[in-house]
Fold this protein.
Amino acid sequence: MIRLIEITKSFPGIIACDSISFDIAPGEVHCLLGENGAGKSTLISMLAGLQQPDSGTIEVDGRPTALASPAVSLGHGIGVVYQHSSLIPSMTVLENLMLSGSGSGSGSGSSSSNSSVGGRVGGARDTQPFWLDRSGARARLAELADLLGAKIDPDMRAGDLGLGQQQQVEIARAMWHGSRVLILDEPTSMLTPLAVEHLFASLTRLKAQGLAVVFVTHKLHEALAVGDAVTVLRAGRVSGRIAPGEMRALTPAQLQARILAGMFGADPAGPAPAKTISATWQPERAAGPVTLKLRSLTTRARSGETPLVDVSVAIHQGEIVGVAGIDGHGQAHLAEAIAGQITLISGSIALDSRDITRLSVKERQRLGVRYVTDDRLNEGIVGSLSVALNLVLKKIGERPFWSWGRMNAAAVHDEADARIVEYDIRTPSAETRAGTLSGGNIQKILLARELSHAPRAVVFHKPTAGLDLKTVQKVWDSIREFAGGGGAALVISTDLDELVSLADRIVVMSGGQLVGEVSCGGDRVAERVGELMVGHRAERR
């Protein structure tokens, strides 16, 4: 259906894609894997018509085609779901989808984009302006929500949705257009395990109808679960391929070894590379004094969000406490309440026995309370500013980086140079705009900023969502090192395997309340947490 031939794209100081070739076939899920910065996002942008290759050819149905704009790409039936939301926050879900539907009957796509697949799956392409048909749009959303196994309120403002819900709407919007090719960039990074299962089931049905899917992921088990073919990228080049026939013939262990060899450069004929990040649970650290104590936290409901209801938990010095639960059940309020970004109706927060409930965000930061947000692109950094400035954003006005109201450029750059080396931030220079970096390197900026200058308690909200294996390992090592040095860590994640691997104990949230607690290190930890997540409330174990 689509063939990329020797595609090359460069930016100042870096070759993002270097002679990349691969095919996208109908009725097939083609998994695209690679570390952050391997070239996947640039490749997606070119297929979406957002960027143009410097050289090489893109063929659609065997004909050289210039995907000169997003409209042209959509006209050829190519729908894309990006890792970060592009919904208009002030518009409702239905309005966002109706806006995306406008003009879908026009466009410069080939006639084959009007196939039966488009009529049943990718969005109607009739002569009526679909964007004016509100009842038809509601019916279409209901159909797509059913395919995704998701509950999507058409009248909720997009800006009031949690990140997981936004991702579901993004997938629905791409399916609205993606009548022939659906490109999913880390589609499961914000989804619950049940929603992931529904998504995989939907992909199976879509494949049966002839849809071609490009599935970008860092998770090996996802590639093995849904992939019909695999292309691995490393440093902008194709470093590994597994054809459909090989996917069927090789064992899971052989497939995993092939993929990891392509990603990290190991010799597939030699010893097997370290195939997973370290997931060995360490015996519970001796409980030190309580560093962070949350007592009966209750927050006010905001549109589309679940507030906290009487939440109490204590985190000891040197302890990692995990927070599990289906996304959108109060985790965001918990993180923001600790950081000081929302006001409590009742309850108290104490740091090292000092009441900080009424302190500002800045005052909490100075005392050592830090927050690594789950929205790294919009809330975590200022994309238009340099890497160096993003690393000291929360130190603006403070010595040694500012003096008498003026920035000390030498101190800022010394700080940046040290953190870039310490956290292995891959950037052409400290002056590079932070927003141009890959998601993994942006996350390293957040870690470097929040874990520097003597933090006492840090909230990590979905710290590894959408990251490759090597960066996940770096994040995990950073959290463990922080706790090992006496810090108190609260890790909020929808990845249960991550919590079991990292935490000393896991508390489970549901409906804004804590419904149970499980100590890690014993048997059936994940199973016991899962039981609490789906509603089997139990006493603390």
